[in-house]
Amino acid sequence: MKLKNTYNPLSSSIRKKLRQILGKRFLETQEDLRAYSVDASPHSFLPEAVALPESAEEIAQILRLAQKEKFPVIPRGAGTSTTGATLAVKGGLVISLLRLNRILEINREDLVAVVEPGVFTGDFKRAVEEVGLFYPPDPASYEFSTIGGNVACGAGGPKGLKYGTTKDYVLGLEVVTARGEIIFCGRRTMKGVVGYDLVHLFTGSEGTLGVITKLILKLIPKPPCQATLALWLEDTEKAAKAFLEILKAKLFPATAELLDDTTLLAVKRFLEKEILRAQALLLLEFDGAKKQVEEDLLQAQKILKNFGLKLEVATSKQEREKLWRARRLISPALKKIAPGKLADDVVLPRSKVPEFLSFAKNTGEKYGLTVACFGHLGDGNIHVNILFEKNDEIKAQKVRVEILNKVLDLCGTISGEHGIGLTKKGFLPKELSPEVLSLMKGIKQVFDPHNILNPEKIF
Length: 459
Hints:
The protein is of the alpha+beta class. Helix content is 34%, strand content 21%.
């Protein structure tokens, strides 16, 4: 099945109608458009115009016009996508959702929150914690990514091991369809199996099926105690094996993060310390009741004491924050090592992670390039960054192909939390069968018959 990929430009009559809907919140100058031509991927596409709606009703009017006039519409949050999912590949209109930015409700009895998509994830997490509740999803970009963007790409984060990822906290959605209809799907109860699960079809769909305008999110009580254990080791494989021993002992940390030698070098100044000979850092965080956390820490230290060069425990918020700040700043810090970077967020069965880490490093060395591996050991989600100079991009692409093929050989998946967007769509047929791809394209056509919503993404 082939999806439509030819569109009409934004004519003067279309622009006039958009101005009637949006007024001064319709942007057309080159200076304004450039700000929306990039995201966190290496790509750049200039949109024809940008809309700054303030309500679902305005978005519905825009999409009814787009459906009639056949021009592309690209939903966009804060533009932190690493896969090019928010870029206007076919021109058209970018719809920024940053003005839909209200936290409408935090309900301590029902343990739910109702928010608009433009709310920044960090602001939401803090607002929830102020009333003693907890929203676990925590992508590294949570201070400058939005809830709507997190849901649209199926974001994850370090706490996926114990608490799951963003999709596990989405109960209900208000969505504007490609036809300009405002619909609600899902619920605000903890259970509900009425009809097809459209909520989780929209979640992770990267703005290709509809525009999310309101979200009902599940909350849980905030754990009263947290502690972080840091283990410095000689190599990454050993770190992965050490974590497997933690699981075998039936310990279940909230997070288990890995930093390899390249990432340690990149974030060295944020750690405020250096462990000589360390080539990897394993971070484990335990949370829950104080007594349980203390018992878990003691048992973990017994297991890990012979694995690494040094073991330390951070219990105060300030000490813990130093370690986690280094973890969150890895991606921007790696850009200082080399000007070019190809980044993927692969997921492996946990038992295969040690083998994969060794393969990724060796493949980089084979081509004379540096491969940085870091990320969420807890759920097998490894961020692979291939670093290269400008004249080495062809070699970097070859390394990437070998690494992604290895992921699939090991029964893994090519994306755990960033989605497909532009940068991975060429690899989709390697993971999904022709029959499954055809079914997915059929679903896209039902929701968006003219393929006006975020075209050229995923497929």
